[in-house]
Amino acid sequence: MTSNELAEALGEAEDAFQRRPENPEVGLEYVSDSSVLQLRKACRLLDAAGFLLDRNGHFTVIIEASFVAIERSIQFYVEEKGYDVAGQRHTEVYDEGVRAGLFTQDVADRLEKLWVENRSESYYRTGIAGEYRAETVFSLAETLHEEVVALTRTQDCLCG
User: Fold this and answer.
1) Are 122 and 50 in contact (CB under 8 A)?
2) What is the pLDDT of residues 5-55, one digit of tens each?
3) 128-137 long-range contacts, Cβ below 8 Å, gap at least 24?
4) In 51-75, which positions are buried (b, 16+ CB within 10 angstroms) versus exposed (e)?
5) Up-side HSE of residue 142: CA atoms within 13 Å toward CB?
């Protein structure tokens, strides 16, 4: 790629984000409630991770998407319970889950440890992502998401 090609591609990407989407993503297109937006982002991440898992590969992406889906699902629950979650770091959302009564401090500590020791390792390639790791983290993300949906009795979930 030449610098002219890069500059052209960059300009097109910059322009694209200045325009109103012509074909917006269904389910996320006109959501104004921030908690519902977080829930639906989790739905889409789980759908994408499940699709990639079925294709038998892309384990690093599956692990990353699953951890983000966990965060978005917890954020939805916390906001639904009336707590503010603005501006937290990745791992702080687990403490917010405790504060909102979603799980115990022990579970929060274990989730945070799992994230710190494994998400970062997989993402930054200091560890090797594998199928079993991807499957189990994806299963954890699905389980937590389903529990959040059941506990809140929301009808806004896009899964299923």
Assistant:
1) no
2) 888 988 998 998 899 888 888 888 888 888 999 999 999 999 999 999 999
3) 129/59, 129/60, 129/62, 129/63, 130/59, 131/56, 131/59, 133/59, 133/63, 134/49, 134/53, 134/59, 134/62, 134/63, 134/66, 135/53, 137/62, 137/63, 137/66, 137/67
4) ebbeeeebbbbbbbbbbbbbbbbbb
5) 15
For the entire predicted model, the pTM comes to 0.86
d(CA 119, CA 96) in angstroms, rounded, equals 19
Structure tokens at 154: 């929301």
